[in-house]
Amino acid sequence: MPNWWTDIDRTWTLFLDRDGVINKRIPDGYVTDTSEFEWLPGAAAAITRLNSLFGLTVVVTNQQGIGKGLTSEEDLDRIHGHLAFSLQEAGGRIDAFYFCPKLASQSPNCRKPNPAMGHQARRDFPEIDFSRSVMVGDSPSDIEFGIRLGMRTIFVQPSTLSMPPELSNIPPDFIVSGLPELAGSLPEGHY
Questions:
Q1: Would you give the distance in Å from CA 109 to the centre of its chain?
Q2: 56-62: strand order across its sheet
Q3: How confident is the model at residue 160, as a pLDDT?
Q4: Which of the following is catalytic: 19, 75, 138, 173?
Q5: pLDDT digit string (tens) for 43-81?
Q6: Torsions phi, psi of 107, nearest 5?
Q7: Neighbouring residues of 149: CB distance < 8 A, sequence distance ≥ 6
Q8: Fewer CB within 10 Å of terminal CB in the chain, N or C?
Q9: pLDDT digits (tens, 9 = 90+) for 3-32
Q10: Cβ contact 156:137 at 8 Å
């Protein structure tokens, strides 16, 4: 892990992307119902372990399926409620969920890499300091979002996928195979 990882304490905030980081991504589709939400192996336990290190844990997720009319904000609320409840059952928590329902073509746009969801999180939690925040995501837009806000960035790259070429221009601070690997690197005493 990078040197700054050992500096993290309860004053830091963990920002997580959702699809592909917390739950299985549906190729060319969207999670539109709780029955389609499937945790990635070890993700709930990993978030629980990461909660012991970070003071806040928030999810920032682009949800273009709403803008396409494939799902609704009410459906998304149910999905996030399901995620939060099952994570609580595992001993973990998400302090807040932020999402952008807009299409990529709409303007102004709250979609990552634009920083709007980060700014909303800081309005809701004034203690957030982006220089003491980590963004974990599986797409170049997640990494660019974190960089634009001055966060540390961690890219999730399952070993079966190749590195997106866009990341050569915006390299993350660190690369992991998933949340379990990240949680497994916690400094001693944070379990």
A1: 18
A2: 96-100, 56-62, 13-16, 133-137, 152-156, 174-176
A3: 64
A4: 19
A5: 999 999 999 999 999 999 999 889 899 999 999 999 999
A6: -140, 145
A7: 115, 118, 130, 133, 135
A8: C
A9: 788 889 999 999 999 999 999 999 888 999
A10: yes
CATH superfamily of 3-184: HAD superfamily/HAD-like (3.40.50.1000)
pLDDT above 80: residue 123: yes
pLDDT at 186: 75
- Known catalytic membership, residue 7: no
Structure tokens at 167: 């990341």
Q: Tokens for 163? A: 């590195």
Q: Tell me, yes or no, if 17 is annotated catalytic.
A: yes
pLDDT, residue 7, reads 86
| Preceding amide of 113 cis, omega within 30 | yes
- What is the spatial distance between Cα 161 and Cα 123, in angstroms, rounded to a whole number? 36
Contacts of 40 (CB under 8 A, 6+ apart): 20, 21, 22, 23, 24, 178, 179
* Beta strand residue intervals within the chain, DSSP E: 13-16, 56-62, 96-100, 133-137, 152-156, 174-176
Q: Which of 92, 103, 109 is nearest to 179 (CA)?
A: 92
Q: Which of 17, 138, 142, 173 is catalytic?
A: 17
Q: Considering the entire predicted model, what is its pTM?
A: 0.93
Return the residue matching tokens 């499937």: 38
